[in-house]
Amino acid sequence: MRLVVLGCSGSGPGPASPASGYLVEAGDVRLVLDLGNGTFGALQRHVDPWRLDAVAFSHLHPDHCADFTALVVHRRYHPFPPEGAERLPVLAPVEAPDRFAAAYAPDAAERAETDLSDAFDFRPHAASATVGDAVLRTAPVDHPCEAYALRVEHGGRSLVYSGDTGPAEALVDLARGADVLLCEATWPHVTPSWDAPPPGVHLSGRQAGEHAAAAGVGRLLLTHCPPWFDAGELADEARAVFDGEVAVVAADGSYEV
């Protein structure tokens, strides 16, 4: 498998990166995990959007899903769609159809009538689903809205994406023995504002490392670092508690799984 980072800036686009979005290439399968602000443009540098097999969303905050509206336009109004194009599967929290219709429609009248099922096959997350010959497993995590960590398995390899979460045993369980953990590290463990991170929102660099160590993953890739924090310092926090390889991902970066 291969991971391509479409964007990795935490909480919104930054000066060097779009918000969160990732392309996973698993054999012949092309699966996108999240489509935050600015990621649809980046996606087109790496794959024809018609080539996608599915899109999966960890949760429905804008920095993880805002560019779905651009995908709607592409799927609905492209002048040269491929012959036989079918609806694109969208695996997401249960409110995704309403959330995306509201984001796409420009006024109340159109919101009342908008139904994106002509172009998309919305499927609420299940514990396990198949996308081609890849398997997508999920686990609910600790965030202020319905949110999931996602595990992609293919050809004996495994990638786990934390999505957004505070400390969560479910993330450790889902990531157990994974080859790569792509994990958010949104803030330092200690700041002038707190002696320990606020619970139930995000992970510090140290907490990301602790989750990787507890799960026994092979490699830890840090993401979702906002532009107002030093990603290198967050990586140092993770290295202090995790003995494996730790790296901070970069927009347009490619990583073997």
TrEMBL record:
Transmembrane segments: none annotated. It holds the Pfam family Lactamase_B_2. InterPro entries: Metallo-B-lactamas. Residues 37-224 form the Metallo-beta-lactamase domain. PANTHER family: METALLO-HYDROLASE YHFI-RELATED, ZINC PHOSPHODIESTERASE ELAC PROTEIN 1. This is MBL fold metallo-hydrolase.
